[in-house]
Structure formats: structure tokens, C-alpha cells
């Protein structure tokens, strides 16, 4: 073991346990995924469709296809992170995200838009989000729930800050200029953070997990070690995938059509931006609370929480209108996203261990993020054929209830033989 210990002047010189540096860096990585997250893309959606003279339906289809194409390499990226470590991976992925923003600024046709969405979503979700979650899971084991939840706050904070900043940039420089600004921001911030601060698991540097914090003996569990094929044979894996798929499908559809939905409820663009801020603020609080619960309860036992909240968020726009209803909608949607993000960030590592986590999470990302690809399509079809989102919203609520029920017949997976 001693022969495998690595030396790092940065790790050795850290005034605190380097696990805290990793947690901060992983949180910032989640924050910087917003240029490719739906909350960030949604602000560009109307200006792009108007400038390129394309319909919202075609743009939604392009976003779906681009998301699916962008996320398909995630299993390969996950295995690459397992082999090469998060440091090299984060630097290359950050550079890729910056180039994707440059490409988006150059889009001048519907087919270029599809390719741009694929590059943007793949770099942000299939790359930066994956490696940022991975590095935190490598450094935290017994306190993984709260650590992963804390790192997910970067995404929630980004959802609060980026839409307002992007809207301001578009007002000043147009949507193309806003993408150029993002292309400059990413390498100036995330590239040095990933390349300088991300590190492989703490044991390789002679450090302990969980930032050196003591863990009560009653919480200590033997860490499992599942391969990707082992994980695919468990109910827990597919339950977590279903949770991610539904949250991304319905949540992406709601966020991508956020301004359209709010407009149908007589809510202006300024107030709609405030609703996004409320949603993100609730997401922060619920993410932390769910992280605390994950260190006490099995992840599958918490699945009904995001599913019931998401069902409520789907029903509200179908049954009610007005400012009060929109804020309640934001509370439910923020709660659903916050709890699901914490469960997804920590659940796979808790059930399947760290040894093959990149490959497992890469595969789960394909199933989970494919929801973001397909989710907007039923909503667009519902609007085109019925003139409202009611049909899509009602079906979404039913699927959430079915997923919540499935959690009651799922158990913690047994160690592979």
C-alpha cells in the first residue's frame, strides 16, 4: 500500500483535510454545468427560435435529439474517468464545454442547432456533471449523503444565478454574444479548478475518507464493490434510473417550456424569472435535508419524496392559474429536483461502491438524461394537438405515482457473488 501512495504538494500543503477542498471543487463543478442545463438553455430558447425562424416543436425535438446524442458517450466517459482519474478528465471536459458554447454562438440553421445541443448537453451533463459527482463520491463514504447533497447545491445555486445573468447578457449582447461570454467564463474558472484541485481517491495520498471526520460505529458499513454488470442485475439500479428518468423528463419539459407555461397562466417574463429563483432556492434547502436523510435511511426508501412532489408539480399547472399557484408549483418542482439530485448523487455509490462507480454512473446517466431528451416531446405534442399541456401533465403525474409505488418492493442489493 505504501508503494502506491502518491505525493502531491498541493494536498500536503492544504491547511485543512483535502476532502474539504474536493467538496468545494466538486460543488463548483456542478455550478458550472448550468450553460448546458435546461434552466440555462431555457433562457436562450425563445430568442433562438425567433432568430432562426423555427417552431418551438422543432426546437424541442432538436433539444431532445441533441440531449440523447450528447449523453450516449457517458458510459465510455465514465470508464475513462475510472482509468484516468477525475483531474485530467475535468480539465479536458471543461475545455470541451467552452468549445460547445462557441459552437452555439455560431449556429445559423436548425441542423447546426441540433449539433450544438448535442455538444452542449454532452459536455455539461455527460461530462462535467458526471466527473464533479464522481470526485465527491471518491472522497466521501460514510458521510456521502450529506457531502453529495452539499455538492449538488452548486447546481441549485447555478439555477438561481445563471438564468438572470444569461437574460442580462442577452439583453446587452444578444443570444450569440451571451454564448461567447459563457465560452470565455468556463475556461477562466472551471478549467483551472478541475486541472489543479480535482484528485483521485484519498487513499492514494495516504488520507482517510469523509474529510477525516469521525463516524459513529453504528453507521459504519462495509463498502460494496459492484461491477457495472452486477449493478444492472439489481432492482435498486433500475429504481434509481427510473427516478432520474422521470425527474429529468418531466422537469426538463416544465423548465424548457417554463416561459410558455407561465404565459398561459398570465405570468410575465419578469415574474417567471422570479419563479425560477424560488424553485432554485427551494432546491437548495431540500437537497441538504435529503442529504442528511440519506446518511440515515436507504436511498430507495426516500424515492417517494421526489416522486410525490413532482406529481404535484405536474398537476398544478393543469388545474390552477395565478401567481400563488405558480409559486406553489415552484416549491413542488424545486423540492422534487432537490431530493432527486441528492438521491442520485449518493445512491449509486452507497449501493454499489467506488471501484467501478464511473462506469455505473455513466450507464445510469444514459437512462436518466434520456428522460431530458424525450420528456419535452409529449408536452410539445400535447400543445400542438390539444392546445394545452393538460394531457401531458396528467400522464406525468400518474407515472410519478407508479415509480413511488415501485420503491416499496425494492431492497438494498446483496453483495455480488
Could you give a quick summary of the protein structure above?
This protein is an all-alpha fold and 417 residues long.
Task: Give the fraction of residues assigned to helices.
Answer: over 70%
As residue ranges, the low-confidence spans are none
Name the overall outline. Answer: globular
Mean pLDDT: 85
Count of helical stretches:
17
Content-based structural category: mainly alpha
Main sheet makeup: none
Question: What amount of the residues lies in strands?
Answer: under 5%
Determine Rg (CA atoms, Å): 20 Å
Order of helices and strands: HHHHHHHHHHHHHHHHH
Query: How widely separated are the two ends?
Result: 26 Å
How many extended strands? 0
Would you give an account of this structure?
- With 417 residues, the chain is mostly helical.
- The chain has helices at residues 9-13, 18-31, 38-52, 56-71, 74-84, 86-106, 110-139, 144-197, 228-232, 235-256, 258-264, 269-294, 304-319, 323-352, 357-374, 376-386, 390-406.
- The longest helix has 54 residues, at 144-197.
- It starts with 8 loop residues before the first helix and ends in an 11-residue tail after the last helix.
